[in-house]
């Protein structure tokens, strides 16, 4: 994500120096599409480096970067929202399951300190 954001920044600088300003929007849209949209699955879904990993590891700066990259259009933002929704749902279910298991153990007279 850092590389994608950096490439977008460099392309914007190149437009300012070498191209007419009227070509900026079209060029940046194309670069954004190639760097961000084409690789959306890899950027969002990777187990060790995707959005869920950023949430799990509390990588706030990288989460902000991901939001900046995917908030340009509603369709792209929806991709990010879906990953976030799944992460929150999965974490919530895991937490409820953990609490339920502890309560069941306590109701059966088991103490967590005995294990």
Please provide a brief summary of the model.
The chain has 115 residues and is mainly α. The protein has helices at 2-18, 24-37, 40-45, 51-56, 60-70, 74-107.
Radius of gyration: 21 Å
Major β-sheet profile: none
Structure annotation, total helices: 6
How many E-type strands? 0
Q: Please give the alpha-carbon distance between the first and last residues.
A: 44 Å
> What is the overall shape?
rod-shaped
Going by helix content, strand content and strand pairing, the class is mainly alpha
The count of domains is: 1
Uncertain stretches:
none
Question: What is the CATH topology assignment?
Answer: 5 helical Cullin repeat like
Could you give the order of the helices and strands?
A: HHHHHH
Q: Under the CATH scheme, which class?
A: Mainly Alpha
Name given to the CATH architecture: Up-down Bundle
List keywords for this structure.
5 helical Cullin repeat like, 6 helices, mainly alpha, 0% strand, 115 residues
Set down the secondary structure blueprint:
Elements: H1 2-18, H2 24-37, H3 40-45, H4 51-56, H5 60-70, H6 74-107
Helix pairs in contact: 1-2
How would you describe the overall organization of this protein?
Residues 1-101 form the Cullin N-terminal domain. This is Putative cullin. GO terms for molecular function: ubiquitin protein ligase binding. The longest helix has 34 residues, at 74-107. This protein has six helices and no strands. It starts with a helix and ends in an 8-residue tail after the last helix. The radius of gyration is 21 Å and the shape is rod-shaped. It has a single domain (2-114), classed as 5 helical Cullin repeat like (Up-down Bundle). Helix 1 (2-18) runs antiparallel to helix 2 (24-37). The protein has helices at 2-18, 24-37, 40-45, 51-56, 60-70, 74-107. Helices cover 77% and strands 0% of the residues. With 115 residues, the protein is mostly helical.
């Amino acid at each position: 994500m850092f590389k994608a954001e950096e490439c977008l920044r460099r392309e914007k600088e190149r437009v300012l120096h070498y191209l007419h300003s009227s070509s900026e929007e079209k060029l940046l849209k194309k670069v954004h599409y190639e760097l961000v949209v084409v690789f959306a699955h890899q950027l969002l879904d990777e187990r060790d480096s995707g959005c869920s990993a950023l949430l799990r590891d509390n990588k706030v700066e990288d989460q902000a970067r991901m939001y900046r990259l995917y908030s340009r259009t509603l369709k792209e933002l929806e991709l990010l929202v879906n990953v976030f929704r799944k992460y929150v749902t999965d974490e919530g279910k895991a937490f409820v399951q953990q609490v339920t298991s502890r309560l069941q153990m306590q109701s059966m007279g088991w103490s967590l300190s005995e294990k």
